Amino acid sequence: AQKITQTQPGMFVQEKEAVTLDCTYDTSDQSYGLFWYKQPSSGEMIFLIYQGSYDEQNATEGRYSLNFQKARKSANLVISASQLGDSAMYFCAMRRSGFQKLVFGTGTRLLVSP
Amino acid sequence: NAGVTQTPKFQVLKTGQSMTLQCAQDMNHNSMYWYRQDPGMGLRLIYYSASEGTTDKGEVPNGYNVSRLNKREFSLRLESAAPSQTSVYFCASRLNREVEAFFGQGTRLTVV
Prior knowledge:
- By secondary structure, chain A is mainly β.
- Chain A is 0% helix and 53% strand.
- In chain A, strand 7 and strand 8 form a beta hairpin.
- Chain B is mostly beta strands.
- In chain B, strands 2, 4, 5, 6, 9, 10 and 11 form a seven-stranded mixed β-sheet that branches. Chain B has a four-stranded antiparallel β-sheet with strand order 1-3-8-7, with no helix packed on it.
- At the A-B interface, strand 5, strand 6 and strand 10 of A face strand 4, strand 5, strand 9 and strand 10 of B.
């Protein structure tokens, strides 16, 4: 069975600082994908970044990067130069290759202060 | 650029009432999904449809039914609502050759 663990219920960061949101996963599969989604207070789920299990380079999308450590089964999200608009819930998720289901973690609430 | 549209956005039901949550996507996606989000539990998959004409159970299907009406639309029905079905419901869709799923705005359902 797959499982995603996000151990930080809440994180605080000052504007313009970098922050790392932790995510560890458990799977016996060799081929899978890891995702991060952002959920602002308005409620929608916004896709941020994706990492395939066979990708050798860490994924980056603008200010977002995914620190992928396969041996440790971790997929931490790094947000550089935090902005007030980054305040939101962040969910880590995983999907086995060839399967439909996304398995989500319980989320981390990030608060960015001026 | 509508993406994934869910209706209604809010609903209050009495225990035992039935209702259908509607979802439509205009991105020509093959797969569509229904998730529920409960506090402290992340999102859990209720049902999905990998292509038009097919539906499959997810993690928490009990108490729900779905219909993939056509490629665009995927509805979720509660036949006899229970307080345990109070949740935020998300519809999502994905083009099978792509990795990311796109989500609707969510439906906040309260069963009293």
